[in-house]
Amino acid sequence: MKKMKYIIAALFMIILSCEEDDSPVVLPLANLSANSEVPMDGSGNVTIKASAQGAESYTFDFGDGTTGQSLTGYIVKTYEMAGQNSYTVTITANGADGSTITETIQVSVDIPEMTSELVTFLTNGDSKTWYIAAAQPGHLGLGPAREGIDGDWWYPKWYSAMAFEKCGSEISDCFCDDELTFSLNSAGEVSYELDNKGQTFFNVGHKDVVGGTADEDSCYDFDTSGSKTVTMSMVGGNVPEGETTGMQMDFSDGGFMSYYVGSSSYEILSISEDLLYVRTYDTENPDLAWYHRFTTAPPTGGGGEESLETVFTNLVWSDEFDVDGAPNPANWTYDLGAGGWGNGEAQSYTDDPENVKVEGGMLKITAKGSGDGGGATHYYDDVTLVATGGATSSIEDFEGTAPPFEAFGGASTEVIDNPDATGENTSVKVAQSIKPVGAEVWAGSFFDLDTPLDLANSTSISIKTWSPAVGAVVRLKIEDKGDNTKFIEIDANTTVAEAWETLTFDLSAAAPAVDPTFNYDRFVLFFDFGVSPTGDAAYTSARIKSEGLQEFTYGRVEIRAKLPSAGGTWPALWALGANFSTVGWPDSGEIDIMEHVGNNPNVPSSALHYPGNFAGTAVTASTSVPTATSEFHNYTVEWTTDSIKFVVDDELVHLSFENTSDTPFNSDFFFIMNIAMGGTLGGSIDPAFTEDTMEVDYIRVYQ
């Protein structure tokens, strides 16, 4: 019994002793291991991971004269020495009792050097300033991301923000006078400074950076002061051979090159003493790549320094418009009808004397407003996704903040008060879609979704619609906004007129079939799909052409004209390749001697369109003519085998283009004169518009 008492007492003392000592068990240092992860992008960012039993912290000697510490054993080291270099990294694990154990690993890092040739091209050995190559093809373009996409395509421009007439539009002309200076210091390092004269041209997806409100790309006040450093890294991924130097420039502190898409890295596609071509990726949508072309030649918009010295003095053809009546049928015929041929214009072209005539020694082309006009107006609401099993979720009901609609093909969409709050839809707000006379048969609009739709686990989409007629085709298209080749389309037909009904779009009938790997985050809707709106056009105008009658190769073409000024007018004096009917546009080539936008008055522009450089990537420039809408001026193109130059009043060349045997500008062209209304360049039409006229005194061709 005494022994048992002693044993119990001893156990009791041990328990008390354990309760009084809460110190953790300290394990001895042991088993230190380490490894590294070296990316192949040339960034020099090496991840080192170390672990050891009993370690409280780790210290690192990176082998390049620098050290680091980590409590967890995880650390990222950025090596900066260019070239292929190997470093011995020493890792020390530190124990709580002051003990240490050490391990070493070898790290091989390959950082591309900025070659002396690249440095020379960028800095001229000291300092060099680059400018937007407004007269060069591809000075601002949108194309494919590098990974997984072959070929060279240009993103379809459905929305007005991407009209691309950058140097001739008030919302974007700040883009065209930027100065980008690269300098070389005594240590051989390259620095960079952007002088954008106080304004930056912002991609609409990044307008929140400056608190912007515009629904399209716009210029905003944005401070870009301060010098940035330029380092080089290797370009990874599927880079087509011969289309890149294999290197990209990385700018410090958020540096960028003129157009703001959130990126500070630019892949060098090609570089020479006077031309720099780069590609960068939108941080909001990395599936899209932006292409920029820069030159060492200062911009010439508004009048350059070159005076035109013509080589053509022999007058070979003219129309002086000195006989009243219809334009001379030996010189002119007409384009008739609506649609604007892809530009989403609002007018219908006629040969009516009210729209085109010769009077008092002048050709007069008049655009007229004819009231409300025809077309069709539809409404829709309560876009709902129906899941497998019957559960529903709202895609959009238009009662809150309206989505930013983007229209195309001449249609328009906005949120309004419900005009017929009866029957199936008594909600307050609905979407209104207008397809006016003159719109394309495929006109419609879209809005983007914050979260992609789960169509793989859904059966249908329902939409409340209001249509003026029975049997109207409503086409629903849902696509990946980053890659519009990934989409589905479903049609439904209206069954009642002038009343609300719910249309159901069966996802099992989608063409192509729903693919669960796609991001379905863009909602596109077409009303009266495939149908041209009927009724009297809201706007009429005229477009005359010399096709098949008067056609020329090379020469000096001079047109004396006074331009309309009303908002929404888009007059043009231009020429189209005579092989247009067989090869189509842009293969035929297009020479825009003069275009003018009433919403940006007295700033006429010139442009060249041809394969690879058309619409949004055309070669363009503009100049200021303060009295373009109140007085007559001479608009001239000098066209030779070697160059195409544009001037106003025989003064300074505002656009000069190097013509070669590879362009389509070496065969016959015919002339066109017209006034368009609205569209991709004309913009919004003044609601009070009634009519406005372009007067042409003469057209003369010298060879």
Topology:
Blueprint: H1 2-20, E1 30-37, E2 45-53, E3 55-61, E4 67-70, E5 74-78, E6 83-95, E7 100-111, H2 116-123, E8 127-132, E9 140-144, E10 179-184, E11 190-195, E12 199-202, E13 218-221, E14 228-234, E15 247-251, E16 259-260, E17 265-271, E18 275-281, E19 288-295, E20 315-319, E21 333-335, E22 337-338, E23 347-349, E24 356-359, E25 362-369, E26 375-387, E27 392-396, E28 406-408, E29 412-417, E30 429-436, E31 444-448, E32 458-466, E33 473-480, E34 483-493, E35 500-506, E36 522-527, E37 539-541, E38 543-545, E39 551-552, E40 555-562, E41 569-577, H3 580-583, E42 590-595, E43 605-609, E44 619-622, E45 633-639, E46 643-648, E47 655-658, E48 669-677, H4 679-682, E49 691-702
Structural class: mainly beta
What level of helicity do the residues show?
under 10%
Question: What characterizes the major β-sheet?
Answer: 11 strands, mixed
> Quick check: average pLDDT?
85
Total DSSP helices: 4
| Shape verdict | flat
- The span between the termini is 133 Å
Q: Give the DSSP E fraction (strand runs of 2 or more residues).
A: 35-45%
Sequence stretches where pLDDT stays below 50 over 5 or more residues: 14-20, 147-165
User: How many runs of DSSP E, i.e. beta strands?
Assistant: 49
